[in-house]
């Protein structure tokens, strides 16, 4: 995550190839210095693309793991091409349209079902024993097949300061006893009445578009008892997104702004919790270390509230898959299985501040281990993570959901816009013959 979310398109196959030419050219120019060389003649080359060119810690860790794999055997040689994230999405989609995907691709978890439906990814040929050790949210699935695997996940929670809650007489919630929706609302109203903070709560509404709106706010909908789609069939959003529970969520969400508890705007960089202008922040675990540096032992990572159907946070981050274009899938799968060893998963967690994908890796990562400072993120992920709907329609669902919530935030009739959202999602599903469901 780390602000990694950006708008995706409704299906991989829907956008004209010409639209990607400039982005692909730019990406190619930026690859200098980001790929391995000197491939031994006797080895089979396995090409990998990733979006880590703008993240030196992640790029260095990927390179370290590649070097370890290349040194561990003499049959395959993995070569990476690292793109800046701003052009990666367009570049990889252009390659998909032309049938030129590399063997190994780096993909954001929610779009995996779309790629699987479009027959761009192969089902993983990795031992079931290995997959069984992974956090469920790190596996990308479609139609009961696993198509991708991630090295880590992240967790949303409420960042707060103990001294503030104690000053206002607000109970500190726990995973075992989170705030109820009523308690959460009362806490916000109490803090607002104190006049100490510009707003009681920062929700990140200044993040203008992209996956954040679905990732961050659909868990509230699900905690109310609604959802973005009927997960029993994946053929309609009727009832899930416009039923009584969804309407209650929408009315509550709208009230946060009409009551002045949350800003309709805000800085996309989200400095408010760090500069003390908000009391609480709905924030990702990737910012927790920075918050501890700012507030020390006063910093708390709190669970989400329970609005009636249980606390929920979003699950799934970036993952790895093997393309159907790959001419040597055995080598690609051998590499992926190699990278899932605990010591390598732990390295990603140490460098990126993300939740290790397995228990064995967690035990090797001090900050996430039983007494580690970031341990609450592990527990939040294990207890409350729900993956976003695993359907090829998800890109449309996410886009429609974002527009709907923005309209609700700005005062639209809740029932009307939820009904419109259902119509838009269902129309897309019908036009694609149910996406295989």
UniProtKB/TrEMBL annotation:
<dbReference type="InterPro" id="IPR006059">
    <property type="entry name" value="SBP"/>
</dbReference>
<protein>
    <submittedName>
        <fullName>Multiple sugar transport system substrate-binding protein</fullName>
    </submittedName>
</protein>
<dbReference type="Pfam" id="PF13416">
    <property type="entry name" value="SBP_bac_8"/>
</dbReference>
<keyword id="KW-0564">Palmitate</keyword>
<keyword id="KW-0732">Signal</keyword>
<keyword id="KW-0472">Membrane</keyword>
<keyword id="KW-0449">Lipoprotein</keyword>
<keyword id="KW-0813">Transport</keyword>
<keyword id="KW-1003">Cell membrane</keyword>
<dbReference type="InterPro" id="IPR050490">
    <property type="entry name" value="Bact_solute-bd_prot1"/>
</dbReference>
<keyword id="KW-0762">Sugar transport</keyword>
<feature type="signal peptide">
    <location>
        <begin position="1"/>
        <end position="37"/>
    </location>
</feature>
């Amino acid at each position: 995550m780390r602000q990694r979310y950006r708008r995706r398109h409704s299906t991989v196959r829907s956008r004209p190839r010409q639209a990607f030419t400039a982005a692909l050219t730019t990406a190619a120019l930026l690859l200098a210095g980001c790929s391995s060389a000197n491939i031994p003649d006797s080895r089979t080359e396995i090409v990998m693309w990733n979006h880590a060119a703008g993240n030196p810690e992640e790029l260095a860790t990927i390179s370290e793991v590649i070097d370890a794999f290349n040194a561990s055997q003499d049959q395959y040689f993995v070569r990476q091409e690292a793109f800046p994230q701003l052009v990666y999405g367009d570049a990889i989609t252009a390659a998909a349209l032309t049938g030129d995907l590399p063997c190994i691709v780096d993909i954001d978890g929610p779009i995996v079902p779309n790629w699987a439906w479009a027959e761009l990814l192969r089902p993983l040929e990795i031992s079931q024993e290995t997959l069984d050790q992974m956090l469920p949210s790190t596996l990308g699935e479609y139609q009961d097949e696993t198509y991708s695997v991630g090295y880590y996940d992240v967790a949303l929670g409420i960042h707060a300061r103990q001294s503030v809650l104690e000053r206002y007489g607000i109970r500190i919630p726990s995973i075992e006893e989170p705030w109820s929706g009523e308690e959460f609302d009362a806490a916000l109203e109490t803090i607002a009445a104190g006049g100490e903070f510009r707003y009681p709560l920062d929700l990140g509404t200044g993040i203008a578009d992209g996956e954040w709106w679905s990732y961050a706010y659909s868990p509230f909908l699900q905690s109310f008892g609604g959802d973005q789609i009927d997960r029993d069939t994946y053929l309609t959003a009727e009832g899930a997104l416009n039923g009584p529970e969804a309407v209650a969520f929408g009315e509550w969400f709208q009230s946060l702004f009409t009551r002045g508890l949350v800003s309709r705007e805000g800085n996309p960089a989200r400095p408010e919790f760090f500069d003390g202008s908000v009391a609480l922040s709905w924030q990702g675990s990737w910012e927790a270390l920075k918050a501890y540096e700012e507030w020390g032992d006063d910093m708390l990572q709190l669970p989400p509230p329970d609005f009636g159907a249980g606390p929920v946070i979003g699950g799934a981050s970036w993952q790895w898959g093997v393309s159907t274009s790959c001419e040597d899938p055995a080598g690609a799968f051998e590499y992926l299985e190699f990278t899932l060893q605990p010591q390598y998963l732990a390295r990603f967690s140490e460098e990126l501040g993300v939740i290790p994908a397995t228990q064995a890796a967690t035990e090797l990562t001090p900050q996430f281990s039983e007494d580690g400072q970031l341990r609450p993120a592990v527990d939040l992920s294990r207890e409350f993570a729900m993956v976003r709907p695993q359907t090829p329609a998800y890109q449309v669902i996410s886009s429609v959901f974002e527009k709907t919530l923005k309209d609700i935030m700005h005062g639209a009739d809740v029932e009307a816009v939820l009904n419109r959202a259902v119509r838009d999602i269902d129309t897309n599903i019908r036009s694609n013959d149910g996406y295989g469901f």
